[in-house]
């Protein structure tokens, strides 16, 4: 996939999340993998209305979030790069949806989910697994966030809650990441309200 093709996908996906209310007020950012060796991602540009992106509103970055093409990458590009490098994900999404932030506030040591059918949509068994979604403190330093992510990383748990900030979810591609995020958001709303 080249940068323009990635831009088409990222703009469409961003518009979708914005319509869901998950990327309010310029919040959130998305990335897809462009290449492996060295790692390259296409990430949404910083500070734009994510519901109005065009295919050119993306920037190529390296594993550390450094821009490899013109434009200003997301302020969180460094965390996208770290997540992609550590997990092997083909796509990483970051959305400012409320339920994960509320759950992180209530369970700052990790959000435990079990015995719920929607866990299947997160790639886990509904009745056998106990899933703990890691919660890390917010930081403006992506290296600090990346270290906290990596310390709690488990290959079978493709999500991270950043306290008082938002949610990261990743997958093989944007579709899988979205399906996982939608199911996880449902699960978090459930445990908050149950
Ligand atoms: C009101 S959004 C604050 C910044 C943020 O957390 C975010 O997700 C958007 O940052 P970006 O640089 O990707 O636009
Ligand atoms: Zn954010």
From TrEMBL:
SMART domains xrefs: Aldolase_II
Ranges where the Class II aldolase/adducin N-terminal domain occurs: 8-192
Gene3D superfamilies from the UniProt entry: Class II aldolase/adducin N-terminal domain
Top enzyme category: lyase
Protein name per UniProt: Methylthioribulose-1-phosphate dehydratase
Pathway: Amino-acid biosynthesis; L-methionine biosynthesis via salvage pathway; L-methionine from S-methyl-5-thio-alpha-D-ribose 1-phosphate: step 2/6
Entry EC number(s): 4.2.1.109
Coiled coil: none
Cross-referenced SUPFAM superfamilies: AraD/HMP-PK domain-like
Keywords: Amino-acid biosynthesis, Lyase, Metal-binding, Methionine biosynthesis, Zinc
Pfam families, A to Z: Aldolase_II
Organism: Kibdelosporangium banguiense
Residues holding Zn(2+): 94, 96
């Amino acid at each position: 996939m080249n940068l323009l093709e990635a831009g088409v996908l990222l703009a469409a996906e961003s518009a979708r999340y914005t319509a869901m209310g998950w990327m309010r007020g310029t919040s959130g950012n998305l990335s897809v993998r462009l290449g492996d060796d060295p790692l390259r991602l296409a990430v949404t540009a910083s500070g734009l209305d994510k519901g109005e992106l065009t295919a050119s509103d993306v920037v190529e970055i390296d594993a550390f979030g450094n821009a490899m093409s013109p434009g200003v990458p997301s302020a969180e590009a460094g965390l996208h790069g770290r997540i992609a490098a550590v997990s092997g994900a083909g796509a990483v999404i970051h959305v400012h949806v409320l339920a994960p932030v509320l759950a992180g506030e209530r369970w700052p040591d990790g959000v435990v989910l079990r015995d719920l059918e929607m866990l299947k949509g997160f790639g886990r068994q509904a009745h056998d697994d106990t899933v703990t979604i890691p919660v890390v403190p917010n930081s403006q330093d992506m290296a600090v966030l990346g270290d906290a992510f990596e310390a709690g990383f488990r290959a079978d748990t493709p999500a991270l809650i950043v306290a008082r900030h938002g949610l990261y979810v990743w997958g093989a591609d944007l579709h899988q990441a979205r399906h996982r995020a939608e199911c996880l958001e449902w699960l978090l709303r459930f445990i908050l309200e149950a």
